[in-house]
Write a structure and sequence with these properties.
This protein is α/β, with parallel strands linked by helices and 393 residues long. It has 2 domains: 106 residues, no CATH class; 186 residues, Vaccinia Virus protein VP39 (Rossmann fold, 3-Layer(aba) Sandwich), CATH 3.40.50.150. 45% of the residues lie in helices and 16% in strands. The protein is built from 19 helices and 11 strands. The strands form 2 sheets. Strands 7-6-5-8-9-11-10 form a 7-stranded mixed beta sheet, sandwiched between helices. Strands 2-3-1-4 form a 4-stranded antiparallel beta sheet, with helices on one face. Helix 1 packs antiparallel against helix 2, helix 1 packs parallel to helix 3 and helix 4 packs across helix 5. It starts with a helix and ends with a strand.
Length: 393
């Protein structure tokens, strides 16, 4: 494939914004595409793919190229993919034969933090929290995430959706243990299906959370950290709109997106911006409460590799504090006999089991019913954790 300088410059600009300025890769790509409307689908795919590869393999590409700037890393990535470097001045300093020799070196020549391209503090944390499991987990999290969708059963069955996708040339596979999930065999645009409310893009691990809440018809359900509403929408589908689902979040713009998604999906969901005053009015009103808590996002590194360069110990410590505050603020919403699910897309026990243990020590009126950890290395899903607690008094 011929490489156009404009696209290569776009890759470098976005990679620099992410790696130097700490910007979010997805949002920066969206802005870049908005500013370059003449780029076609292949152009956008080239830019996105190479940006994520540079971000994912920052350390190894820097070592391979002999220099860690974005142009050098892009050159190393092109050679790694079997391409030839254009005769541009930005690549003139690169030694192609040396790069090829570095690419041929065995993995044992590099430390884990180098070969998996992670900051040293993150490698130390993973080793301390996960022990011998860390090696396999971080390796799996450096793979490319599959595209998984959830059929919106308020409008269509999974099998009907599969047939409609196939009619458009989009092949899918069933996902074991998930009755509404389909995994795309090749990346394709799903815009029309999403706009029609027939499905939602939702990782397989995320699709485990709503059923884990064990919601029943005609119950009052509160999704306390709803965001743009992926799990709220799933709950509406599970209950067939027979019950009350109230979605809360501190960010009004996310709730606005949730309302748009609910409308197109025929989901009956109430929304409200979360404030301490409003939460007090909800004490002991909920049969089920979901807290999909803010977290490190370490379980989603396959789809968001830029997280590992934005995250640090200080932000993690603030997140741990926030998780406890959210648990304490929202647990009173549960009725006696009701259930609360605490979930994160983190693989670290400090955000998961340790937080549940702390909460139970502070709140003996809750008992742990079941917990589940989802390993990327073992399942191919995002890393996830969920614990279901019952209010007994």
């Amino acid at each position: 494939m011929k490489i156009h300088r404009t696209l290569a410059a776009g890759v470098v600009a976005v990679a620099d914004a992410v790696l130097k300025n700490g910007e979010v890769a997805q949002k920066t790509l969206e802005k870049t595409f908005e500013n370059n409307k003449k780029w076609g689908k292949r152009d956008r795919a080239f830019v996105a793919e190479h940006v994520y590869e540079l971000v994912r393999w920052k350390r190894m590409l820097g070592i391979t190229a002999g220099k860690g700037d974005a142009w050098s890393m892009l050159g190393a990535q092109i050679i790694k993919n079997g391409g030839e470097l254009p005769e541009w001045e930005e690549f003139a300093h690169l030694d192609v034969e040396k790069i090829k020799a570095n690419l041929a070196r065995p993995a044992s020549d590099f430390s884990r933090e180098e070969r998996e391209s992670i900051p040293r503090w993150l490698d130390d944390l993973g080793q301390a929290e996960l022990g011998e499991k860390w090696e396999a987990e971080i390796h799996a999290l450096n793979g490319e995430a599959p595209v998984v969708v959830r059929a919106n059963t308020l409008k269509i069955t999974r099998d009907e959706l599969r047939e409609k996708l196939l009619a458009e040339g989009i092949e899918t596979e069933l996902v074991e243990g998930l009755p509404d999930a389909l995994q795309l065999t090749n990346r394709r645009s799903l815009t029309n299906f999403l706009n029609d409310g027939l499905c939602e893009v939702q990782d397989a691990a995320s699709q485990l959370v709503a059923p884990f809440l064990e919601v029943e018809f005609k119950q009052n359900v509160i999704d306390c950290c709803a965001g743009a509403g992926g799990k709220s929408l799933h709950l509406a589908a599970i209950t067939r709109n027979r019950g009350t689902i109230l979605s809360l979040d501190v960010a009004g713009e996310k709730l606005a997106e949730l309302r748009r998604r609910a409308l197109r999906g025929n989901a009956k969901i109430k929304t409200q911006k979360a404030t301490p005053e409003f939460l007090e009015t909800l004490h002991e009103t909920a049969d089920r409460v979901l807290i999909d808590a803010p977290c490190s996002g370490s379980g989603t590194l396959r789809r968001q590799p830029d997280i590992k360069w934005r995250l640090n110990q200080k932000t993690l410590d603030r997140t741990l504090k926030l998780q406890r505050e959210i648990l304490e603020a929202n647990a009173p919403l549960v009725k006696v006999g009701g259930k609360l699910v605490y979930a994160t897309c983190s693989i670290f026990p400090s955000e998961n089991e340790a937080q549940v243990e702390w909460f139970l020590e502070q709140n003996p009126n809750f008992k742990l019913e079941e917990s589940k950890s989802v390993s990327t290395a073992e399942t191919g899903f995002d890393g996830f954790f969920m614990a279901r607690l019952v209010r007994v008094s």
